[in-house]
Specification:
- The chain is mostly helical.
- The protein has a domain of about 90 residues: Orthogonal Bundle (Arc Repressor Mutant, subunit A), CATH 1.10.10.10.
- The chain is built from 7 helices and 2 strands.
- Strands 1-2 form a two-stranded antiparallel ribbon.
- About 20% of the residues are buried.
């Protein structure tokens, strides 16, 4: 028979409140991505990538990966899906034939214009709204939380939230 946990093993009210906040954040992010996929037919990470290509036409995969804070191979897969869907095209640089730049197609522009915002996702948008001091404090506190995790997958840190 399982032993009943004593109060020291139970989560405090504050810990439960923080747990609810994480659930609210993850649930809200998941709901936003569902709405994007339902409305656009592409994932939230693909929509964000499409938006970034539109902002800087001719950009390459490595720069896109940096801007989205994702692994370059993950970015390449997302680009290929968008190319396959006819939303992005690849163009070789005239100056350097080895360099491939990306451009949004007319179909991609139409999709962006009709997409639900924010195209980056609701979490990056919320983070942009926070003052620097609050972001630093959040970063420091989340770093401390991560240090207490008994299991963590570092590779997930370089995947878009929509793909987790």
């Amino acid at each position: 028979m399982a032993k009943k946990a004593n109060r020291a093993d139970d989560l405090t009210d504050r810990q439960l409140q923080v747990l609810r906040q994480f659930r609210l954040i993850f649930g809200s992010v998941r709901q936003h991505f569902r709405e994007v996929e339902k409305h656009c037919g592409i994932s939230g990470s693909q929509l964000w990538l499409l938006h970034e290509v539109a902002k800087t036409s001719g950009t390459g995969v490595s720069k896109l990966a940096e801007r989205l804070a994702i692994h370059q191979s993950t970015c390449s897969l997302l680009v290929e899906k968008l190319v396959g869907a006819g939303l992005v095209s690849k163009k070789r640089s005239v100056a350097d034939q080895r360099r491939v730049g990306l451009e949004v197609t007319p179909a991609g522009i139409q999709l962006l214009n009709s997409s639900p915002g924010p195209t980056e996702g609701i979490l990056p948008e919320a983070l942009k709204q926070m003052p620097d001091l609050a972001l630093k404090t959040l970063h420091d506190n989340l770093s401390q939380l991560v240090s207490h995790l008994t299991t963590r997958d570092e590779t997930d840190a370089e995947k878009p939230l929509a793909d987790l």
